[in-house]
Design brief:
Elements lengths: L14 H31 L13 H104 L10 E2 L18 E5 L2 H10 L3 E7 L2 E6 L6 E5 L5 E3 L7 H10 L8 E7 L1 H11 L5 E5 L5 E4 L1
Keywords: Coiled coil, Membrane, Transmembrane, Transmembrane helix
Length: 310
């Protein structure tokens, strides 16, 4: 309660006023306490509620689920391990079987290799024997051809004797015209030696090698060389000044005669002469065979070897 003081009164309060002020203060605090008590009682009487939609974590269920999952995994891993053990055991059995098969296969290979080596040895022996027999057969064929040539020459000589032609038609070396010697015609000079080949194939074989024998056709002072590189075979005009061994016309192959007819046209066949030029190796063989002999048949084989026949 506020009291009004009139002017002129003393500033010092009286005892009654002091007591009145204390009473007012106590009343004020009492009112405040009553208000606080009412508020506390109201707050205490209010019910405490929780939110029903808030999530709750059930840890026991989660742990049980994890344990169940782990047990299932353990069972699955156990089954997998059992299957792997069975597969490993099966693989071990198969490995042992493969090892046995491999050992048997190695034994078979060893046996086959021994048989192969034996067959190779037999083939080498057979091949060597075949080569030797083939060489012997070649010598026999050359001998047969030489005998045939001898028979032909004997028949030719018999025919010449019937016609009372003295001497034999021989093949002689004729050198080119030089200051030292003049060319000798095979029609003028006759000797006791004749030159020929074991067969027509032997002549063509030596011609194809190109370094043993060359075949020429001569008409007076003109020469043609027989070429086997072209098809058909033909005579080609050449200039020649070397040594020629003239051939008996009866020993000239038909293919050579046909090629000469296509190369030139000569009224008289007697004007055409056929001869060969020989390599130094064949010439040396002929010289060695003629040394110390007065006559005979000189036969050139397909391999370049020169043989002598009486």
């Amino acid at each position: 309660m506020i009291r009004y003081r009139q002017p002129g009164f003393s500033a010092r309060p009286s005892l009654d006023e002091t007591e009145s002020l204390q009473t007012d203060t106590m009343r004020f605090f009492a009112v405040i306490c009553m208000c606080l008590m009412i508020i506390f009682s109201l707050v205490k009487s209010m019910p405490i509620t929780r939110k029903t939609n808030s999530p709750r974590i059930n840890t026991q269920k989660i742990v049980r689920d994890k344990i169940t999952c782990l047990e299932q995994r353990v069972q699955t891993v156990g089954k997998t391990l059992a299957a792997m053990e069975q597969a490993l055991q099966k693989a071990g059995n198969e490995h042992q079987q493969v090892k046995r098969l491999h050992s048997a296969f190695i034994e078979q290979i060893t046996i086959l290799q021994k048989k192969r080596d034996k067959i190779i040895t037999q083939l080498e022996t057979t091949k060597q024997a075949y080569t030797e027999k083939r060489q012997a057969l070649g010598f026999i064929e050359d001998e047969i051809q030489r005998i045939k040539r001898g028979i032909q020459r004997l028949e030719s000589k018999a025919e010449d004797l019937k016609q009372n032609i003295a001497g034999d038609v021989l093949v002689n070396p004729v050198a080119a015209k030089t200051k030292a010697e003049a060319e000798i015609s095979p029609e003028k000079e006759k000797t006791g030696f004749s030159l020929g080949f074991s067969s027509d194939d032997a002549l063509f074989s030596t011609l194809k090698t190109g370094n043993q024998v060359a075949l020429y056709m001569r008409i007076k002072d003109r020469f043609w060389q027989f070429k086997t590189a072209s098809v058909p075979w033909a005579f080609v005009p050449v200039s020649f000044s070397g040594r020629i061994y003239y051939m008996d016309r009866q020993t000239v192959p038909d293919k050579v005669i046909q090629a000469s007819a296509q190369a030139v046209s000569v009224p008289g066949t007697n004007e055409i002469l056929f001869g060969v030029s020989l390599s130094q190796g064949i010439t040396r063989q002929i010289s060695a065979l003629m040394k110390g002999r007065k006559g005979g048949n000189i036969i050139i084989q397909s391999n370049g070897r020169v043989d002598f026949e009486n």
